[in-house]
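[Q] Does anyone have a clean structure-token version of this?
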Amino acid sequence: MSRISANYAIAKFARDLLDVGDNLRRALEAAGDGANQNEAMKTLIEGVEMTERTLLKSFEQNGIKKMEPLGEKLDPNKHQAVFEMPSAEHPEGHVAQVMQAGYVIKDRLLRPAMVGVAKNPKVLRPMRAANREVMLIHLPKPINS
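[A] Here you go.
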């Protein structure tokens, strides 16, 4: 087996393990910080945190890196745009929210990041109302049901 083949032979297995990491992260988010939990729950949270750290360390040791693209310009080679959202914090066409992290192994994409992309509202024109300047913003029309 060539060196290149060996580097990517674990790609399918690695993709399967990404789901395990996602589920560990979801469990920790659902559990909260554990501050108001009983001792058994605190111990369980600590165990899940340790398991997640061990999995992420194993990913790193095998050349698997997590991509956190918040604020990056949308790249369809690395990001899967799931929705657009108004954002004053991010330029239009940039990642404004990460729904699911992406991963690469060496230089090959394992899974694209699932993201929300900034779409800045269009300012139509400033106008004066009651001695204050206000901005009219173009919003999409609601869908009639």
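[Q] Thanks! Anything notable?
[A] The chain is about 35% helix and 30% strand.
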